[in-house]
Amino acid sequence: MPTTTDFLTYTQWIGILTLVFGVLSLLGFIFKWGIRFRLVGITGFMGVLTGGLFALSIVPFSRTVIPGAVHFTLVYDNGGNQAVIALPTTINESQLEASLRQAASDFFSYGRLGGENNQLTIRARTVIHPEPGVSKPLVVGKISRSLAERDDEQMTINIYKERLAQLPDTST
Prior knowledge:
Blueprint: H1 4-30, H2 36-58, E1 73-77, E2 82-86, H3 93-106, E3 119-128, E4 136-146, E5 156-159, H4 161-164
């Protein structure tokens, strides 16, 4: 993944190219070339690209990777204080905790509305099949974190061990 330093380098090169097209546009008007208006359009577009790359060079990219987290799918997100993720039925307790921490990191945003307690609650669920043709969603854990600070040390994780025990045994 490109870093902010890479985008700054790209900005410098595209900025130089924009200036070159600007000079070509100016020469086109001086010498009345037939493509002078196209050169103005190209210069304008290059200016927009330069501005976009510059914006990407000043915005920090950060994604925390939690070791042990398994792939999860976002099932529900109200854009505010609640979200639900789906996990495979083969998950164990340590993977569940890591996956909840990963989801809390991934879904954190200052733009979320936290309600009265300013907390984001993410529930983890899986689907079990107690008998053929019947599917039952099973919430196996949840995490609550603050929406006010990025590095929340006060996250509360609840793992429902009795529900984890209902998952099919895949150790054999």
